[in-house]
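Ticket #4471: structure output looks truncated?

Reporter: J.K.
Steps to reproduce: submitted the chain below (476 residues) through the standard prediction queue, then opened the result file.
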Amino acid sequence: MGLAKTKMQITFYGAAQNVTGSKHLIQSQGYRVLLDCGLFQGRRSEAREQNSELPFEARSINAVIVSHGHADHCGMLPLLVKQGFTGHIYCTNATAEVMRWILLDSAKIQEQDAEYYNNRLPEGEDPISPLYTTEDVEIMMKQVRPIPYFRIRPQWTILNERIRFKLYDAGHILGSSVIYLECVENGKTHSLGFTGDLGRAPAPILHAPEVIQEPVETFLTEATYGFRNHRPINDAKKELRELIEYAYKHKSKIIVPAFSLGRTQELVYLLHELTDDGEIPRLPIYIDSPLAGHLTDVFMAHAEDFDHESWVAFGSKGEAPLAFRNLIYTHSVEESKAINDMKGPMMIISASGMAEGGRILHHLKHNIEDPNSIIMFTGYQAQHTLGRKIIEGISPVRIFGKQFHVKAQIRKINELSAHADQNGLLNYIKQLKGLKSIFVVHTEVDQGTAFVEALQASHPNVSVTMPEKGYTVEIK
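Returned output as attached by the reporter:
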């Protein structure tokens, strides 16, 4: 390890003035710690360009700490290892399991896309290769070192004689963590916190976000919904109930683009609760995502991460919160195709959450021009994604290279988002001690500007910055 007398530095390589591709590099006297290593997601041509190479030398990274298992936070790890990273990858136990399924799915899709493209290669163009393969994922997983939340095992993880960290529960998805890192330089201790993605409180299934108890001089906070506040979760339940009652009456299909991890399980939990309470009819609910099925199994294996309300609602009655009799998990392509020939009423929950790939595209293709169908969005849609275009009323839209007119009913229930809203973020940050600098990440410029203004109003003596991609700051 180098002993250069440089000050601690942070460089923001991703999720800087956008909501994807999280990568933040911490450097201290020659030791380099990467917080997250996520895929950029968005317009396909831009995503291919952004993800084709890493913005730093992989061999120069000493350790990686992953906040959670969403692809935009961990999806570039196999490429990092493939290009020469030999250190350890730290995350919670649940994140390690979740991440493996997420990355295997990502690799499989890349392999299939490359094969499809290369079989139809225009004359004179070079074939494409996946960023990484399923074999690369398994090789990468050998470098993963799972560690429990600090509340479960109150023990710091030591990176070297000067740097240590611990993980708090972020309450965002299963295994998600708020990272707290301490670094000693020339006898002075620098402290840094990173939200990853911060969850809502209250929210189904998971614990509320844990507040860092130590002083935090430098804080990196997500601000996906830093520009607005969610309505109460009961309002979302009411809207969901009315939507399902409408679909049942009119024999409609409700098409739900949802992330296989987090959103799908939370939605299933709410639907189970509403069904058991007799508030909605028992219409068929299809989870058309093999990945979601695998991840639901991981959820059920980590019941220790569930909150008390989950136990009261289901566990105390001997029920599984993510399984009930009108819920059907599909696995094969044939089962998925068969759904399109069925009549409503029904709900189809399928990935991807921003409608940029996966089986959801087939369901949108079959239903988007039907005025009796309903497309329900339950979370943030990034710029240039198909989901964003549909929400913004753009029509026609392109699916599988063909134009489709949007005639289906479009509904948006952001209250089911797993992200904290502006009040939630402000309330979390208000409880932190010793703040000197806040860096607002994981947000688009307009939304981030609104949150920066709110932070400056509530923390007039703290420096608040929304860094650009590639921006480096020295921590004094």
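Triage note (M.O.): checked the attachment and the full token line is present. The radius of gyration is 22 Å.
Status: closed, working as intended.
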